[in-house]
Amino acid sequence: MTDATVVGVVIRTLNESELLGSCLTTLREQEGAFELDIVVVDSAGIEKASRRMDGNSQASPTLAPLKAQTANDFRTATHTLAEANAGDPARIASIAAAPGFTLLGGGVPLRDGDTVIGAIGAIGVGGGSPAQDVAEAGAAALS
């Protein structure tokens, strides 16, 4: 894996969701960029935007939506959820076994103040950390 500059993709309104494709094209053109699959869901967990760049894992179309759904439903970042439950193997097993959830980093809730308005799930070829960084940067821009 090469070091890459952390970037964020923010979809501020439903009317701007089509901009996600342009954002990913710009990211792909950057030197050292990694391939991403990004999914944005609204507060009901309905997918509002998604884009998948060429070259990422075949697991990406499955995992990116799971990350967004988990962050939205639990109202917390997926890596934070995993860390908070690390000492409770039964809870970890329960969350991991439930359809529609994952404890992999890269899912971050989108907030408008204290209200969760949706979530972003991101996955890249670099593993959880770059995807988590992209998701967190996107979510932080809304705060």
Key features of this structure:
alpha+beta; globular; 143 residues; Beta-Lactamase
Look at the structure and name the CATH superfamily. Haem-degrading domain
Order of helices and strands: HEEHHHEEH
- Quick check: average pLDDT? 75
> What is the CATH top level name?
Alpha Beta
Per DSSP E runs of 2 or more residues, the count of β-strands stands at 4
Strand order of the largest sheet: 2-1-4-3
The Rg value, from CA coordinates, equals 14 Å
Beginning-to-end CA distance, first to last residue:
30 Å
- What is the CATH-assigned architecture? 2-Layer Sandwich
Number of domains: 1
Largest sheet: 4 strands, antiparallel
Shape: globular
- Percent range of helical residues: 25-40%
Give the structural class.
Answer: alpha+beta
Q: How big a fraction of the residues is strand? A: 15-25%
CATH fold name, please? Beta-Lactamase
Please report the number of helical segments. 5
Would you identify the regions where 5 or more consecutive residues have pLDDT less than 50?
A: 1-9
